[in-house]
Design brief:
By secondary structure, the chain is an alpha/beta fold. It folds into two domains: 12-254 and 461-483, Aldehyde Dehydrogenase, Chain A, domain 1, CATH 3.40.605.10; 258-442, Aldehyde Dehydrogenase, Chain A, domain 2 (3-Layer(aba) Sandwich). Helix content is 38%, strand content 22%. The strands form six sheets. It has a seven-stranded mixed sheet, sandwiched between helices. Helix 3 (86-97) crosses helix 4. The chain is globular and about 85 Å long. It binds nicotinamide-adenine-dinucleotide. Nicotinamide-adenine-dinucleotide binds next to helix 8 and helix 9. Nicotinamide-adenine-dinucleotide (NAD) is lined by residues 152-157, 179, 181-182, 211-212, 215, 230-232, 235, 238, 253-256, 287, 388, 390, 416, 455, 457, 461.
Length: 496
């Protein structure tokens, strides 16, 4: 075990050692609720990425030869350490990212769940065999690791998102580099303090902090074979193109604009509660947040009043305080951008039914708070109806039929999630059959796949073939090798 870093100047973790970046360029890490500066994060240069990639490549030679049953012992230990430090990790997520402590605990639970599932790798990584594909000839397909892989993560789930990939990469025999969001690097800093206690061979897992410069070095590094990215659509598209042009395997999860349809036969109390949590939970900074609620027929009246009440009564404040239901957004720039979008919506004819702009949160006047906001009569063809807001803003659109609602959803660019609220099985089946989105909720507001299912974004919400989590991750982190084998029967019988 090496010495832990202080939290004031963050370090990278490369080759089994904490080490300072070679950069002179640092960014402040700021608590979005209190505006307190928590630490300085290095914006690592390509030299640091190269150091990590070289170390990971060296480690790969022995790690891939370590039996899967032994590789997962490290994951069992990691799970136990994450459980032991659960509260501290959850508090760190809240302090740097702003979500409530309960939301942070939920996030961390999902991270640990992926570690647990990856412990099944001795089964999940198995290949296939067929004897006698021709007389006396057998054929096998085995899965082998790729080498060095890396994840580039967004700010909104600093604890969970690297774990959609890392445990599977490792269990499959790859070595790994994590590049957290430069806005929320503290959670990974703490998780790597736990990783340091695993006594893994040096270089098996590395941490490189930074922003675009470090990302570009990852995209271009010849030793890095596979890249997982989660973030906004424009960056996802860029990373997919550049990494693929460099011959790498890439999976890029992008942004979203998630619609929910509310039919008149829905349980309105449940629907209101669930959609309010979806739209305003994590201050709307979730790629599975409901962003547009489409009411059909009579649902317009019943739902509108109920959701307005739920938005207005939500308790907003510092996520570490008991009873708080929603925290701030990540930066002052983000808050300003969201407030501008609300204004543009109002200017283009929408009614601001609940206005959460510029709230006063006692004792947290410096925080990036916006209260839940509801825009009514949003024009389906307006920019507001198409732009990812990534804040606690729900747009209401009214349509006459479910067919019109599905057609509107399918005309959108994104395909991360779509949900339906109804008590009709036939409507639910038509919806899941027709809707062009990869994660579907029926009477569910945040259709987040569990670790043993793929996180299935479509359209501009995903670039690639294989998604994160579960069996898709095993396929992403392995390459298939097919062996066709013949042994002379004559020679065999002569031995006896
Ligand atoms: P972002 O795209 O700004 O940043 C993501 C990562 O890319 C960060 O590590 C950042 O350092 C890096 N990056 C940013 N700009 C870059 C550039 N020009 N070149 C190279 N690298 C760059 O995203 P964010 O603001 O951190 O996260 C929010 C976004 O992530 C939202 O759009 C949200 O919908 C999306 N998201 C998607 C999913 C999903 O599963 N589809 C999950 C979570 C978040």
């Amino acid at each position: 075990m090496t010495q832990s870093p202080t939290l004031s100047i963050l370090q990278n973790y490369i080759d089994g050692q904490w080490c300072y970046s070679q950069t002179a360029d640092y960014l402040d890490v700021v608590n979005p609720a209190t505006a307190e500066t928590l630490a300085k994060v290095p914006l690592s240069p390509p030299e640091d990425v190269d150091h990590a990639a070289q170390s990971a490549q060296r480690a790969f030679q022995t790690w891939r030869r370590t039996p899967p049953t032994q590789r997962i012992q490290y994951l069992f230990r990691l799970k136990n350490l994450m459980e032991e430090h659960f509260l501290d990790l959850a508090q760190t997520i809240t302090i740097e990212c702003g979500k409530t402590l309960e939301e942070s605990k939920g996030e961390l639970r999902r991270a640990i769940e992926n570690v647990e599932i990856a412990c099944g790798i001795p089964m999940m990584m198995q290949g296939t065999t067929l004897e006698d594909i021709a007389s006396g000839i057998d054929e096998f397909m085995i899965r082998q690791p790729l080498g060095v892989a890396a994840v580039i993560a967004p700010f909104n789930f600093p604890g969970m998102i690297p774990f959609w990939f890392l445990p599977y990469a490792l269990a499959c025999g790859n070595t790994y580099i994590v590049k957290p969001s430069e806005r929320v690097p503290l959670t990974m800093q703490k998780i790597f303090q736990l990783i340091d206690r695993l006594d893994l061979p040096p270089g098996v897992i590395n941490l490189v902090n930074g922003s675009k410069n470090a990302v570009d070095a990852i995209l271009d590094h010849p030793l890095i074979r596979a890249i997982s990215f989660v973030g906004s659509t424009p960056v996802a598209r860029y990373i997919y193109g550049r990494a693929a042009a460099n011959g790498k395997r890439v999976q890029c999860q992008g942004g979203a604009k998630n619609p929910v349809i509310i039919l008149p036969d829905a349980d309105m109390e449940m629907t209101t509660r669930i959609t309010a949590d979806s739209a305003f939970g994590c201050a709307g900074q979730r790629c599975l947040a409901a962003s547009i609620a489409i009411t059909v027929g009579e649902a317009r009246h019943t739902y509108t009043n109920a959701i307005a009440e739920a938005a207005a009564s939500r308790i907003v404040g510092y996520g570490l305080q008991d009873g708080v239901q929603m925290g701030p957004v990540i930066t002052p720039q983000s808050r300003q951008r969201i407030e501008q979008i609300i204004q543009q919506g109002a200017d283009s004819g929408a009614t601001v039914l609940v206005d959460g702009r510029s709230p006063q949160i006692p004792n947290y006047e410096q925080g990036n708070f916006i209260r839940p906001t509801i825009l009514q009569n949003v024009d389906p063809s307006s920019e507001l109806a198409k732009t990812e807001i990534f804040g606690p803003v729900l747009s209401l659109i009214h349509l006459d039929t479910i067919e019109d609602a599905i057609a509107l959803i399918n005309s959108g660019q994104h395909g991360n999630m779509a949900c339906l609220f109804t008590s009709s099985g036939a409507a639910a089946r038509a919806f899941r059959y027709e809707v062009e989105a990869g994660n579907i909720g029926i009477n569910i507001g945040v259709a987040a796949p569990m670790a043993f299912f793929p996180f299935s974004g479509w359209k501009d919400s995903f670039f690639g073939d294989l998604h994160g989590q579960g069996q898709h991750a095993v396929e992403f982190f392995t390459q298939t090798k097919v062996i066709v084998e013949r042994w002379s029967q004559n020679r065999w019988s002569r031995q006896f």
